[in-house]
Structures are given as C-alpha cells and as structure tokens.
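does this look right to u?? 2-acetamido-2-deoxy-beta-D-glucopyranose version
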Amino acid sequence: MAHHFTILTISHALLLLFPLALSYGHSNACRSYCGNLTIDHPFALRSGCGHPGFRDLLFCINDVLMFHISSGSYRVLDIDYAYHSVTLHDPHMSTCDTIELGSHGNGFAVEKWRAPYLNPTADNVFLLLGCSAQSSLFQGFPGKHLPCRNVSGMGCEEYYRCPAWSQIGLNRVGATYGTGPPECCAVQFESIKAVNLSRLDCQGYSSAYNLAPLRVDGPGQWSYGIRVRYSVQANSDSYCKACESTGGSCGYDLDGFNELCMCGTWNSTSNCDTGNLIKLVIWIMGFQPG
Ligand SMILES: *[C@@H]1O[C@H](CO)[C@@H](O)[C@H](O)[C@H]1NC(C)=O
Ligand SMILES: *[C@@H]1O[C@H](CO)[C@@H](O)[C@H](O)[C@H]1NC(C)=O
Ligand SMILES: *[C@@H]1O[C@H](CO)[C@@H](O)[C@H](O)[C@H]1NC(C)=O
Ligand SMILES: *[C@@H]1O[C@H](CO)[C@@H](O)[C@H](O)[C@H]1NC(C)=O
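got this back:
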C-alpha cells in the first residue's frame, strides 16, 4: 500500500514538474537582438515585455536600433547593462568635425512619465551652440553667473579647438563673456533638465562623454554621443530577478502597465514557481487520508 502511494507520488510530481520544465524553456522569450546589440530587461522590442518605463522606446529598423522619445529619434550605439547606460547618436548633432546650426538637432527631452527612468549621465556634457542673448540660459547675464561650465574635463574652451569651427568662420568664436553671450555654453543635463533647442533658443548642440578615468587629450578624442543612464527601482529589479530565476520573462500587462512575470503558458504577478507551489500544495492536501 505504502509502495503504491510512492509510485503515485513520483508520477504526480513528474506531471507537476513537466509544465515547470516547459516554462524554463521560455526563459528568453523577451530577449531579442538588433544588429549586434542584445535587447534585454528592462528594454524590449515586443510590447508587454521589459519594464513598463521603457515601453514604446526601442525599435529595430533594418538591423539599426532606434530610441524614440519626445525630442526625437536616435540611433543606439551601445547598451551597457553593467553600467546601466545607453549611448545614443543624433545625426544632426555637432561633433569635432562638423558643426550643424539651424536647430535641426534633437537635443534631449523625455516624456514626463519617463523622466524617472532616463537621465543623461553626470559625466555627459551638452555643448549648446549659437544660443541667443534672450536664451533662458543667459537670463540675468552679465550680473548672474552663467550655468556654463566644464563637465568632466570637457568644455567650450577646448571644443573651440575643433577643426569644425574653422569651417563656419573663426569670427563666430569671437564672442566672450565680456561682450555678450558665448557662442558655446557647456552644461550638465541636471542643470537644465531638458535640452530643447527651440525653447533654449539655440541653433545647435553637441554632446560628449568621457568613459576614461583619466582626462582625455583634446576634443578630437572625446566620445561624441549622448550617454543616458537608465534606472528601475530596486524593488522592480529584484522582482525581475526572482521572475527570471524561476524561468520567467519580465513584462507588464498592457492595460495598467503593472509588472508581470511571463511563465510561458501563463502570467504570474510574482514568479513562475508560485503557481506550481500552489498546485503542489493543493495536490498534497488532496492526498491527506481522511
Ligand atoms: C557593433 O557593430 C558596430 C558596427 O556596425 C561596431 O562599431 C560596434 O563596435 C559593434 N559593437 C559590438 C559590441 O560588437
Ligand atoms: C520644446 O519647446 C517647444 C517650445 O517651447 C515646445 O513646443 C516643444 O514641445 C518642446 N519639445 C519637447 C520635446 O519638449
Ligand atoms: C574649463 O577648462 C579650461 C581648460 O581646459 C579652462 O581654461 C577654463 O577656464 C575652464 N572653464 C571653466 C568655466 O571652468
Ligand atoms: C501575458 O502577458 C503578456 C503581456 O501583457 C501578454 O502579451 C500575454 O498574452 C499574456 N499571456 C497570457 C497567457 O495571458
């Protein structure tokens, strides 16, 4: 009798484990690739996958990963999962080789609801070019201090040494703090919260970041692009780890944008073991001798 019960127990346990094993097979349901970039949590290309703060953000077009926010579309050059950052390229951004005026650049501004999740890093400098004297950047000038400063060893004094300035005429560089607003003003994102060229009344911008622990030599060596830090709350991070460690994929429901753990054939509000555990408990209770 006891022997019979053991065999039943084992076969039932196997039946219970079977869907669990199946769900493990779906563990990478939300991971995807675009060109040579891996798109993983909190990002995703499929809607319903990833963290809701990053929904409708990334698009893969002909193997080029595009990042779309309210200020425009950018090409994603890199996603650094270890440092929680994304590097973006705006084709209308000035670099050391070309200066593009005419306010075609995107700048950088995100939707209000997305603001907690995406912020350019503290070591990223925005070089605002050709801003008018009426720009809010210079309000109170010359009495008040300008927000312009060097960021992470990068600033306008050095940027003026770029060959691109000679293309647009050196006289543009003439303006100094004494006579009017400077032709270039370097700021950290934190000090202005949004790089909106039309609102700031600027004609162009450049953006660079410095990954090296040491100062790099000259603006020709800077890395041009926008380095954005992405963040998810710690509780959401541990929620996802628990989900993935039980074979699930982190996602959210499309109605309320609440986080979900997708377990292959079903969705859990916690992780993929919970449901199986409940089934197991119900099954064991059903076996209690009456
Ligand atoms: C991805 O490909 C681009 C060129 O298309 C290259 O510049 C970049 O270094 C590659 N990135 C990785 C991580 O291999
Ligand atoms: C930039 O500023 C302009 C004018 O103030 C405004 O109409 C536009 O919506 C802003 N763009 C973004 C992306 O916030
Ligand atoms: C920025 O750094 C340069 C040297 O690279 C220096 O000449 C300049 O005074 C600094 N500017 C500010 C605002 O600190
Ligand atoms: C689980 O949630 C995802 C994302 O909202 C949805 O696409 C999928 O249909 C759901 N699956 C089930 C079995 O309900």
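The chain has two domains: 2-29+234-286, 83-230. idk if thats expected tbh
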